């Protein structure tokens, strides 16, 4: 496969999609876990969070190691690990076993989230890199939607683990397709070896990672509570609400492509980010207010997801521009993954507690705080001007 071509970028992109499906595929199964394994709401919330533990602890170090030893091989190993994790889920007979496997599955995300963007950055030209990274930003909504569909279609049935089987098969296919991944030139041998935690000393990647963390708390939090919230307020099943969200999440792709288009026309990313923040807060009110008519709620959901996808694209577009050394692509992506993983771990604990209180205004307050933090943290060096 030709290095830097769009088919090459698309193949790399699929590893991020499958990894993101791991985040969401368990969400529609809360009632099944309670029925078949006796899982309490607290145990289920912990199960959702545990996948973030490996990235929270190892992502930056792993990213630096990937910079040295190769992103291509890492993606193949991650796909094989994803296959193994999903096969293990099929045999797990307790919530404790599911939680242990969930931690192991987190290493799949460590590899995919660090190696995939690094391989894109290493194999694309300067002209294509920005567009490719903006496209990469859409891996999350596509993956989350895929995960919700995978398990949502099996929720409440005797074969409620069917989504895990399908996900494992998809990972196995990607492990084989990994043999087609491009091999970037090994330029690192000509330079001094970089310290494993060198990106922590760079203010640009650190601020960008914290910006991304704020977006994760909003985005993953909304995905965590929306099926149950929409079910409660609109009188539909959780499976139906998950299906609505999985389709609506594709609006984030529109946001990512919109960002790429507007940046290509010379608009500053900081200006775009401010517009997205205002639109996101307004959308959250229509999204969560129980009094909103259903059509208004769905329109607000679409707007919310477009702004979330657009702001995520700003972060990924800015990543190559805040790294001092192009050889630190994986370690910089690992830093984003690590700090975002810490946010992913705490997010279900926060949002599920708010859901239990049945006070929708708190959702909007958390979203507004996160947007303010993101606006303050976004590095100016990522400005397109």
Question: What can you tell me about this protein's structure?
Answer:
The chain contains 16 helices and no strands. Residues 187-196 have low confidence and may be disordered. By secondary structure, it is mainly α. The radius of gyration is 20 Å and the shape is globular. Helices cover 77% and strands 0% of the residues.
Overview in brief:
The protein contains 16 helices and no strands. The chain has helices at 6-24, 30-37, 41-50, 53-69, 71-91, 95-123, 126-136, 139-152, 162-177, 203-234, 238-248, 251-264, 269-288, 294-322, 329-357, 360-377.
Helix content: over 70%
What structural class results from the helix and strand content? mainly alpha
CATH topology: Growth Hormone, Chain: A
Give the mean pLDDT: 85
Low-confidence stretches: 187-196
Write down the secondary-structure element order: HHHHHHHHHHHHHHHH
Number of helices: 16
Report strand %: under 5%
**Strands, count:** 0
CATH architecture: Up-down Bundle
Largest sheet: none
Q: How many structural domains can be distinguished in the coordinates? A: 1
Head-to-tail CA distance between termini: 34 Å
Give the radius of gyration: 20 Å
Query: What sort of overall outline do the alpha carbons produce when their principal axes are compared?
Result: globular
CATH class annotation: Mainly Alpha
In CATH, the homologous superfamily goes by the name MFS general substrate transporter like domains
Quaternary structure classification? single chain
